[in-house]
Amino acid sequence: DTAVSQTPKYLVTQMGNDKSIKCEQNLGHDTMYWYKQDSKKFLKIMFSYNNKELIINETVPNRFSPKSPDKAHLNLHINSLELGDSAVYFCASSHLDRDNEQFFGPGTRLTVL
Amino acid sequence: KQEVTQIPAALSVPEGENLVLNCSFTDSAIYNLQWFRQDPGKGLTSLLLIQSSQREQTSGRLNASLDKSSGRSTLYIAASQPGDSATYLCAVRYHGSGNTGKLIFGQGTTLQVKP
Fold first, then answer.
1. Do A94 and B107 touch (CB under 8 A)?
2. Within an 8 Å CB–CB cutoff, is residue B5 touching chain A?
3. What's the gap in Å between the CA of B71 and the closest CA on chain A?
4. Digitized pLDDT (tens) for each residue of chain B, 115 residues in all
5. Contact (Cβ atoms closer than 8 angstroms) between residue B33 and residue B50
6. Among A81, A3, A94, A98, which residue's Cα sits nearest to residue A45?
7. Does the beta carbon of B43 lie under 8 angstroms from any beta carbon of chain A?
8. Does B76 touch chain A (CB under 8 A)?
C-alpha cells in the first residue's frame, strides 16, 4: 500500500526516559513533517525536512531532535520525556514544489507517566 | 498573526441534510487551503486541496470553496450520512511561511450525523 506509516502506534513510558518514533513514506515525496496534536486536538507543526534538509524548526524544546536519513524516512527522538510531552504525534509528507498536498500517517499516541 | 478559525466547534444534523462547515483565515496571501477529515483515534485523511488561484474543488458529495478576499472557505457536504461523522479540519499554507509547506490548522468542527 502506498502510504505514510509510523511506528509505534502507542508508546507509554516514564518521565525522564528517551524514546524515538519512526516514519516512512513510499509516496515518492520530497518533504516530510512532524506535527503534534495536543489534548484539545489542536495540530501544530514541529519540524519539516525537504530532501533531508531541515526547513522548519518551530519553537520546540531542544529535547526533540528530528533526523532524516533519506527522503523516505523521518524519525523523531525525544530526550528526558516530560508529562507535557504526552500527545499524538503525526508524520506527514508532500511534494513541496508541486501542490504540497499533505498526506498524514496514522499517528503515535505518546503517554508519559 | 496568521491564524485559522473554524466555527462551529461541533455540529449535529439528521441524516440526509445538506450542511456547510466554515473556515476563516486572517491573511489573504495564501498558497493553498486543504480540508481534512479525522476519525476518532485515526490520522488525517485529505479531502480537498484548493490552490489560491481556484474558487472551488469538488469530490463526490463534497464541495469546497475559497474566497481569499474575505478570508473564508466553506466545505459543503451534500446528503449527509452517518458515515460522514468525524472531525473536519481546515489548514492553510500562508505565503508568509516561505517555501516550507507549513500548514496552519484550525481547531476543527466535529460533525455528528444522526440516522
1. no
2. no
3. 20
4. 889 999 999 999 999 999 999 999 999 999 999 999 999 989 999 999 999 999 999 999 999 999 999 999 999 999 999 999 999 999 999 987 777 889 999 999 999 999 9
5. yes
6. A94
7. yes
8. no
